[in-house]
Amino acid sequence: MTEELSPAERYAAARIRAAEEATALAPFREMYEFDLDPYQIEACKALEAGKGVLVAAPTGSGKTIVGEFAVHLALQQGRKCFYTTPIKALSNQKYADLAKRHGADKVGLLTGDNSVNSEAPIVVMTTEVLRNMLYAGSQALLGLGYVVMDEVHYLSDRFRGAVWEEVIIHLPESVTLVSLSATVSNAEEFGDWLDTVRGDTEVIVSEERPVPLWQHVMAGRRIYDLFEEGSDHGGRGSARREVNPDLLRMAREENSSRYNPKDRRRGKMVREADRERERRSRGRIWTPSRPEVIARLDGDGLLPAINFIFSRAGCEAAVQQCLYAGLRLNDDTARLKVREIVEERTASIPTEDLHVLGYYEWLEGLERGIAAHHAGMLPTFKEVVEELFVRGLVKAVFATETLALGINMPARTVILEKLVKWNGEQHADITPGEYTQLTGRAGRRGIDVEGHAVVLWQRGMDPAGLAGLAGTRTYPLRSSFKPSYNMAVNLVQQFGRHRSRELLETSFAQFQADRSVVGISRQVQRNEEGLDGYREGMTCHLGDFEEYARLRRDLKDRENDLAKQGAAQRRAQAAASLEKLKPGDIIHVPTGKFAGLALVLDPGVPAGRSNGHRGQEYTEGPRPLVLTVERQVKRLAGIDFPVPVEAIERMRIPKTFNARSPQSRRDLASQLRTKAGHITVERRARGRAAAADDREITRLRTALRAHPCHGCDEREDHARWAERYHRLQRDTRQLEQRIEGRTNTIARTFDRIHALLTDLDYLREDEVTPHGRRLARLYGELDLLASECLRAGVWEGLSPAELAACVSALVFEARQSDDAVAPKVPGGAAKAALGEMVHIWGRLDALEEDHGINQAEGVGQREPDLGFAWAVYQWASDKSLDEVLREAEMPAGDFVRWCKQVIDVLGQVAAAAPSAAAVPPTGSPSSAGGSTVARNARKAVDALLRGVVAYSSVG
């Protein structure tokens, strides 16, 4: 029985209720049909108290409620709220949600593509749009009270992360910042930085998933729990997590049944018994096919599911496999509803384009409840898949990891086929953070009692390693902030050089660097104590052993130096021999994967080899393109030629030879074998070692033998202590250099950028020149190259389609480089302009090297990529979608996305280019009639905005 409250207690409770009802939070809570979680209430109360907040919580836990409360406060107070997201798709989604709740008249949208009701009190936008508004001093910032930064953990992104820090640093002090992040392990550190740059900031961390997550492994027809029954699976419990012993046993059995070369020496009967045991084991353990997985989950009531496949082609293949297997997840009613929605959403697509886009195959999958979702799809198709999935009309989606980044598409089950993915450079294990992000989609709040993560069994799987991934649910937030040219001129224009430098030192990047110095300093102190102990251990009664050890090191270093010099000479000789090669030379590749006879197709010596280009082939010498006797066309590197090479024979290369044609390669390789297959190449004899005749080595050996410590009985024991002393001393010096290097790193980079821009007359100390003001309006990775092209009049006189082709080189980056074939580009003036752009980039590249600006550190201008020039030129020239995509060999989604990025930069070029009345540099094509760039850039935008590009609302 509940104890009755005293009158005083009832009065106190009534006062608390009255106080709560008088807050803005009370009516806000009534807008929702469910109770808010404690962490959401805590964050909302902090916001109402005037504090900024950082909310770190798992995916799908409802942290956007806090952002929506900021919107509620802004409307109540008659102020503005900007709601920023990292991607346009999420902006569109959030705009629709807020417009539905507050009315379309009160909500606006600003992305690179769309501008809807931009003067509204609530505006949803991408983070880049807000950054640009801050630098431009936009009038829209007047009356701004709140900024919500959704998915703020994006500031770790290598390419775009700096934008988040720019916004946080430059927002007016009067603006309250609401930062929403995935669960990160250093939220307190990030909160401390926000407290430093934004004032009073409350950090609210919730690690509790709203829907418990169960981890599984599917092997064969069975689904195993990853953890033993009774242990915590990633939900709300805190029980000890023990790996399922069945999985550990399966892994041991698989490992014991693997082939061993020593088995060849065992008896035939024993080997046969091993093979039989392996066959029986495989009868229980195999990687199930995609249709098997979906059918099993459907039977267990675990759909809808998202199956993550780290390959676009894999996603498309998975849908086809399910269709061929006859899977049907929708009944007739659902199928008709799907067709109705799809036809409504795609009504604006011209009928002639539907076949090109694979519409009918896509629709067949949707009607059966199966779809793919990846960046190569047409944006409209992706939006339809998302809508149907949320409605429950698509029950299995095969997606790349981009789906895990923000889009609201929760599922009951998430499937991971593999725990390895291509990171752009190599196949690497996914990180605990990536695993958390992917599996965070499992479990729909208010719908599912629990979510499920299913990992498919793969040969060689380590269940304990998987348990470690599943058990580490957080990852650290690391700043990727780097100053850029555009950032430098905008900062100097607003604040002057000195104040800009101070602002950059308040970045999260510098904050983290300064904090790391504390730990390094402690390590230096410990090392110095260790050095004292090692010095004592190497003490010798016969003399100064430190001096003796130095002689030994000098001798070893000299021998190593001579060996390196010899290797360098051999490499130089090899490079010189490669420079003499001509197309048609037959050579013998001495080593490497492609050792043997090869025909030189292209010597690979870059034109203008002395122009200072970095990142070119010539940093490692020539890279000849060859045809091997195995019919492979490959570009070789210096590492394949440790010794000089010379032509052993010559043969003619037919003009009709096509490196991409298998038949063409087969025919030429056959001629190569006939011509030179009988020739035997003699191996070169190695010369006398340089160390044998070196005077310095002779001197050091004599001094070593004459030293008193050379005769010590404990010499080698002392030498071991001396070696430890030397290694620890070297490590300590490196730590001291790291301390020095981490202090003021961002400001030093800014100084180098400032010096380069001063040399180019963009800046004069605190003054921004007219050239600098033009650069301030150009955002993007190749901002300085774009500005230099405008300055030199490179694009004057180009047609709109030709200008679009040139601008594409500033934004496009091929997913995989293709060294074998040069990209196709438009001829005439466009080809000349593209060549001039590459020439200007080479000059800038050399200048960056002179100023110590390193592209490997994320600062500087990469080489323009001409791979999209022909496709965008064709599209701007009004060619059909079928013709453009067939020649470009590019998915429709990629084509649309790159077109939108070209349109975005064309808009910047139109704004930054000289007016029509301005006279471009003398000698440019239109010096008599004023600049044509701005006008043609706008015409190019109009020419590109048609068909699939125009009706795709999401870029």
Give a brief outline of the structure.
It is built from 34 helices and 24 strands. The protein is α/β, with parallel strands linked by helices and 955 residues long.
Structure description:
The protein has 955 residues and is an alpha/beta fold. Helices cover 48% and strands 11% of the residues. Helix 17 (432-439) packs across helix 18 (463-471), helix 19 crosses helix 25 and helix 28 packs parallel to helix 29 (828-850). The chain is globular, with a radius of gyration of 33 Å. The relative contact order is 0.07.
List low-pLDDT spans.
234-239, 261-265, 608-618, 922-929
What overall form do the CA principal axes indicate?
A: globular
> Radius of gyration in whole Å, from Cα?
33 Å
Q: Considering DSSP H and I runs of 4 or more, what fraction of the residues is helical?
A: 40-55%
Helix count equals 34
Structural class: alpha/beta
* Separation of the first and last Cα atoms: 61 Å
* Most strands sheet: 8 strands, mixed
Question: Hey, roughly how much beta strand do the residues contain?
Answer: 5-15%
Kindly report the oligomeric state of this protein: single chain
- Give the spatial strand order of the biggest sheet: 4-3-5-2-6-7-1-8
The strand count comes to 24
Give the overall average pLDDT.
81
Topology:
Blueprint: H1 7-21, H2 25-29, H3 38-48, E1 52-56, H4 64-77, E2 80-85, H5 88-102, E3 107-110, E4 115-116, E5 122-126, H6 127-136, E6 144-149, H7 161-170, E7 176-181, H8 187-198, E8 201-205, E9 213-219, E10 222-225, H9 245-256, H10 268-284, H11 290-299, E11 305-308, H12 312-324, H13 332-345, H14 351-356, H15 359-367, E12 370-373, H16 379-391, E13 396-399, E14 413-416, E15 420-422, E16 427-429, H17 432-439, E17 451-456, H18 463-471, H19 485-504, H20 508-537, H21 545-579, E18 585-589, E19 596-602, E20 625-628, E21 633-635, E22 649-650, H22 662-676, H23 695-706, H24 715-742, H25 745-759, E23 763-764, E24 767-768, H26 770-775, H27 783-792, H28 800-811, H29 828-850, H30 869-876, H31 881-888, H32 892-912, H33 933-944, H34 947-951
Parallel strand pairs: 1-7, 1-8, 2-5, 2-6, 3-5, 6-7, 9-17, 11-13, 11-14, 12-13, 14-17
Antiparallel strand pairs: 3-4, 9-10, 15-16, 18-19, 18-22, 19-20, 20-21, 23-24
Helix pairs in contact: 3-4, 6-7, 17-18, 19-25, 20-24, 21-23, 28-29, 28-30, 28-32, 28-33, 30-31, 32-33
